[in-house]
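Example with several molecule types.
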Amino acid sequence: MSLLRGGLRPPSEPPPGMAPAKPALERSGPHLREENTLLSAPVESRSFPERAAGATRDRFLQQALTIATTRFVASRDEVFAAFPQGDALRDRARQIKEAVLQRLDHYLEELTANVERAGGHVHFATTAEEARAIILDLARRNQVKLIVKGKSMAAEEIHLNEALEHAGMAVAETDLGEYIIQLAHERPSHIIAPAIHKTKAQIADLFARELRREVAADPEVITGLARGTLREKFLQADMGITGANFAVADTGTIVLVTNEGNGRMVTSLPRVHVALMGVEKVIPSMTDLVIFLQILAKSATGQKLSSYTTLVRGPRRPTELEGPQELHLVLMDNGRVRQLAGTLREALYCLRCGACLNVCPVYRQIGGHAYGDTYPGPIGILMTAMLRGTPAVKDLAHASSLCGACAEVCPVRIDIPRMLIELREHLDREKIAPWPERLLFKACGWLLGRPALYRLAAPLARLGQAPFVRDGRIRSLPSFFGRWTRTRDLPAVAARTFGERWAALERGA
Amino acid sequence: MVTCLGDMFYPEVGVAIVRLLRRLGVAVDFPAGQTCCGLPLFNSGYHREAREVARRTVPLFRESEHVVVPSGSCAWMVKQEYPGLLADDAGAHREAQSLAARTWELSQLLVRKLGVTRLPSRVKGRVTYHDSCHLLRGLGEAESPRTVLRNLEGVELVELPGADQCCGFGGSFAVRLPEVSTSILDKKLASVESTGAECLVACDAGCLMQMGGGLARRGSRVKALHLAQLLEDGA
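Resulting structure tokens for the full complex:
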């Protein structure tokens, strides 16, 4: 039985002429994983549960997360409450995403033809390594020294900055949040708010250290300083690199949704513009774009629309005064195409709005870094499984209380809790889950099928708990059970269970 | 249906429900052979084991006109997951669908099926209500428990800020990531205490174990109670 809506469908073939199509599927597997693991070798050796526990003790992190996520959630709820057509548009957006996946090859082919018709170039990258190689090659051919970047999770996914810097090029992040974490030598901890884990005071300290001067913990002062530095970079840069929120197949338009206007500068000032996107970001038409734009910013920040929506169609035309001389679109598979026929298919609907992070009780306690990979939060667990394989989410798959808040706010209604349960099922089936856990659950399953034995559980538990019970409560238990009792009392097993009282109740007592 | 946590830790809730329903003129039975609904197995990914629990449990209630469950999460399991788990076996699937249609969480049975909203209260004062995730988002039920509470004489229902946010229980989640679970709980309990309520009401044994355990550890004067415990003294 397939628990996922939609079930299995045959994988669609990438369009001819554009892809190393077949190798795409053949080369996935060990090769891909090995290469990715090498690159993302964790900086720290702590396990996920240790990182998560550590994060709950970080006061600054707790303060920053509570303030930011509370504000995001309140704004989102407010803007949707005043937008009655929102629910229908979300349904429509979901349908469009599914329709695109069913004919992904067709839409990618159409997109490619139309980008090329407008004078741009399209590249297809099967793996992260190929995507990096394509972009590095473009940079070298254009003798690029300085690159300005718009915010891009796809670029984070392939660790692009490290690769470019390793090749001797300077990279300047131009989104304020990305700029902050670049200064701090960190990685984004939220899909749309990369520096969400930092407080104002921490950011002011960071700028002060960098600029060797006093900096007030005032967002306007900080933004002004960043803007001053970045203006110069925009003018000097030889190449601009962005992601893409959408790419419209029937016009060949790359769409960027931003709030700071940096996206516009990155795509128009440097000589060369390179946009990198996952293959699933293609949408059929401008009519569809309008649907997505109506729900994306609302879900992400609670704005009706973002401050800037940048539409890029081709490089500078002969009659135009500005725009890049060259435009390149890099379409990246990196584990996505395989999921067209996989259990994570629905995760390919994701618009990267971050709404599921903001409402997730786990994300709200531990922030993005504890997840340990590019994409944090509930959707991030699914993305990590997609990019690195199920064994990589052995612990992460359990980083959810399955409260369902993520599915409720997802603009395209991805059933994340169900997919997490599905991942857990996979962990058992493939014997990836630790054997003591598997043994315990299987023993429980066995016991629950035997009511006569189950009835012995309560008397046995009463015997076992006797030394620990005070006033009907247990305050401390050894070993594994201490995981509960360290912070919470446990009710004692009742003197008589409901089952044991039923005979008397039945007689009318 | 009285499921594992309710059976072992909160038998008084089951007893209160039996007495309440009898007073409302409902004949109550407790079919033998019940254990657990299988939700902990299902949510942790042990679907083969959960399927066997479902296969065993469904026929136990063949004779029951309606089935009342004290926990929203168990009701969700029976209503939303049993039919899917048994989809491979046409007969069992049909029977599971029938059980799903006859199964009610307590507040839903009272308000939506029996049409009872005015009930005598065993407590007085200020109470607040926590929405259990599976009842709220799983079964889409926010109103029935509030309807009952609002109509209790001598009881003032104060809305809990962030009532719809998880308490951090999540079954095995609570012991897999105990620090995260506790951090979520701490925020929930701070919110509970901000209401000035003397009593925190929920309709799920799991949430009550988590929030009740946290309140007791803090030495709080707030009591965590199941809705049924306000309606009838089950001692």
